[in-house]
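Hello again, I could really use a second opinion on something today. Take your time with it, there's no hurry, and the full record follows here:

___
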Amino acid sequence: MNKESKTYKSVKTVSKSGAVSWRPRWVEFDSDGNKKIRNGKSQPSKVEADRFSRKMVDDLNTRDSLKLVAKDEALTVGQFALKYWLKAERQVMVVNKAQIYTAMKFWKEIGLWDIKLEDITSAMMYKYLKTLKDRGLQPATIQNYKTELRTLLDLARTLNQIAVNPLADVKLERRTQEQQEQDDRIFNDMLKNTWSLEEIHTNLEKLRHIPKNRVEVTRKTGKHIEMRSSTGNVPPIMWYGRFCLGFYLGLRTGEIMALKFSDFDFENKEVLINKAISKRKLTDDEGNIIGNINEESRVKSSSQRMQSLPDPVIEYVQQLAVELDLLGIYHEDQYLFVNNLGHLINIEYFRKSWLRIQELCGIERPLKSPKYTRHTSATVLAGLGWSPTDIANHLGHKNDRVTREYYIKEDMDIKRRMANEFNKKLEE
């Protein structure tokens, strides 16, 4: 019987750029009782590193308990998933819960669910990945599905249900020239939709002063018919906050919408990013879409992080707390982005009103989509000399591959422009 695993003290590391991170470290024992020191992925804070270590230790102990189960005969993928894999995954939660169940649904759809574990071959796994690709799924999504299936097969091997993992040596095909050109077009479009440091400061100031009312004009007569609030029942300060948090923290829209006042540690100037809001469609008994609701979920472990808080963000959050308190809707566990009644704003609101609000504020070069605040953040940091690894940690990417491909490709012109503008700001 294996000895019980225990955590080691997290190790502090400092990158070349001066960024501080913490590497989780723990001990595990093999079947012969030999001690193995393991290291996890660097985390932005000691608290997160210790939390990661505890998760890994809990997972190891869970898997050790599962090893006590005798080998079942001729289990199918579905039977094994329900009996063992889900139990183990709930301890680690490598991906979010919705993604796990989506993958299981797909396994059923393509017939993998009813195949015996011992009958699975590498050729079958290659066909599985090709099916995902033929359906037009993005490489990152395919990689997620592959990861989920690999963890299931690794556990099956650990529990002696199979001798080897048939997915271990199966690799995704390289991207075609056409696919690469498409990625380049997307990236170039992104470059056109990023702001410089000067534009960020100028336009944020404009967003502080959104006109409270706008005139509605009929298309038929051209007459003024009424005055309406420019932001409906959403406090105008929310718009400044959406841009501010996007630029300074590089957060996804779902991560911004999920922020609560309790996530902020003003004493240490940190904020915890560990959840996201997404849109879920509502259907009637006949399957017809009748609307949508906001749904909160935990983000992937690789995206959970502690972000350092710059002064403008601290100022905004504290000011927002005061304004919500005046409305009588503030409490510590309250979402930041709520309407005048204290209800979470629909995640679709910012997307639908995005260009209209910028036009209303007189912004000369509006960003086409909310996602470009995140791209702007990455581009600015690249221009300031941050490494791809540090930017990846800032954005919550699992590694710097996505960061390099879609956020900070070697575009020296924009890097030089951003660096020159930053130097100008320092000289002012």
Residues 15 and 21 are 8 Å apart (CA to CA). Residues 195-366 form a domain with the hpI Integrase; Chain A fold (CATH 1.10.443.10). The longest strand covers residues 289-298. The two ends are 67 Å apart (CA to CA).
